[in-house]
Amino acid sequence: MTRRLGLAAGLLVAAVTLALPAVLDDSALAVYILLGLAAMVTVGVSLLMGYAGQVSLGQGAFYAIGAYTAALLALNGAPPLLGLVAAPVAAALSALLIGVPLLRLRGHHLAFATLAMQLILLSLAGQLDFTGGDIGLQGIPQFSVGAFEASSASVYAYLTWAGLALVMLITHNVITSRPGRALRALATSEIAAASAGIPVGRYKLVVFALSATFAGLAGGIYCFYTGYVAPGSFPVLISIQYIVMAVVGGLGTIWGAVAGAAAITLLVQGLDRLASLPGMPSYAPSVLSYAVYALVLIVVVLFMPHGLVPAVSRRLSRRRAEVPYR
Amino acid sequence: MLNVSGVSRSFGGVYAVRDVSLSVADGEVCGVIGPNGAGKSTLFNLITGHLAADHGRISFLGQRVDRLAPHRRARMGMSIVFQAARVFRGMTVEENVMVGAHGHTRAGFAAAALRLPRHQADEREIAAEAADALARVGLAEWADRPADLLPIGQQRALQLARALCARPRLLLLDEPASGLRAEERERLATLVEELRAAGLTILLIEHDVGFVTRLADRVVVLDLGRVIADGPPAEIRSDPAVLAAYLGQAS
């Protein structure tokens, strides 16, 4: 029963996802693409925080690494496809390198260290010549494979959502397997996990790198879609936003990450429109967008501590008088 | 099987364990008792690798292990049941037990993400062993429940199932009877007796003297971080040093 319902819901989501790029206009399509990219990063955040119990307040750094990698390769004449493949790889390698010292920290310390990591990266990108300084990199060519060039936004929409589907599939496959159980176990107790034969340090490093891979892939698509990257595209707020999305949707659920990304993206868009109405003060957009993260986070933690998706699925399963669990 | 020789560990200049030697033979159930603060937990952590010894050596299956990380010792066949409930939250009873099989299976992230044959084979094997282990401790019908909602007695049984799923050569039990009600304690004792009958080597660290003397072939008594007696339960019960240090006051 539940399985058939899930399959039907999945098919419906897939159909809508595929149909949307055909009917949306360009500005709505931009929201749709950014939503998909945010969801891609948030699935990684949910895997890292919700399943493996590790915090990252610097996920935007890996998004930036992916974007800069793809941009630099494309600007230096490499085929865009190579740039798109290199983006997640570069993000993963950076995570492996940075993760060795960083993942010795836990909880708040790890959160601050990842935040610092992003700040350092941003100021480096703003200072170095080859990253274009504060102005960033411009004139990135369109994404293309062979003779086919992605000339319209709907191609980027399909690329984004195909990437998201891949990321969700990988995450699902990982968490419902031997390494996934190990990650979920070490989230509760590293001591007990080690005593079950799990190399805790290595597993934390791999899941950190995997979440960075997803962010890097999103960054790669982003740079081809927008055509430019600059430090200003990856503020610290973006990392906070991913966490808010993951928590709002429901940490430790894959669909929750997507639902959270959709809810927050649409909410912020709505508020942006509201704030730019005639008569609103000039500081309204920034105040509203900052305030909404805090407000939404507080409301969700108070009233739906497990997030949107678990709250809804629990309500559904209660209606069918089943034992609610995950 | 296990050989601890001259092991010491101090905290801030105070010895928690001082020059302790003990050995556990193949197929033996060895009990370690001692009053609170005798160094039982420290000794346990030194053997499992969660603490490093200041001096001395520990060998397991003829190989020196005192510099090995806990997960390496676990993979050699040391399986642990912790005193504190260390049940993995957000996972079912069955998934908790499946974690126990981690050490002797191989499917990694790539095999899982791509659903390679290696993953499928491992999953089948792990599920079968978990079902076996759950049946052995009498938790089979709880398999699909969330593990953190089990009562404490069953959480301990769950940990035992997880340890069995790891194909242990040596089973280490840290105060397994603490916090259990009388009938839960009885059920646990019966379980340990069955495991002993099946030939499993067990190191049992326990505060409850009755529990240990009933189950152990040999008992080591710790007091103030030192071994003060080592012998069969009957001898230990009448040893004057033990009576003075422990039995007289504690029970």
UniProtKB/TrEMBL annotation, chain B:
One of its GO terms (molecular function) is ATP hydrolysis activity. It holds the Pfam family BCA_ABC_TP_C. It comes from the Bacteria. Residues 2-249 form the ABC transporter domain. The keyword Nucleotide-binding applies. SUPFAM superfamilies: P-loop containing nucleoside triphosphate hydrolases. SMART domains: AAA (SM00382). Signal peptide: none annotated. One of its GO terms (cellular component) is plasma membrane. Keywords: ATP-binding, Nucleotide-binding, Transport. InterPro entries: AAA+_ATPase, ABC_AA/LPS_Transport, ABC_transporter-like_ATP-bd, BCA_ABC_TP_C, P-loop_NTPase. PANTHER family: ABC TRANSPORTER ATP-BINDING PROTEIN, CONSERVED COMPONENT OF ABC TRANSPORTER FOR NATURAL AMINO ACIDS-RELATED. This is High-affinity branched-chain amino acid ABC transporter ATP-binding protein LivG.
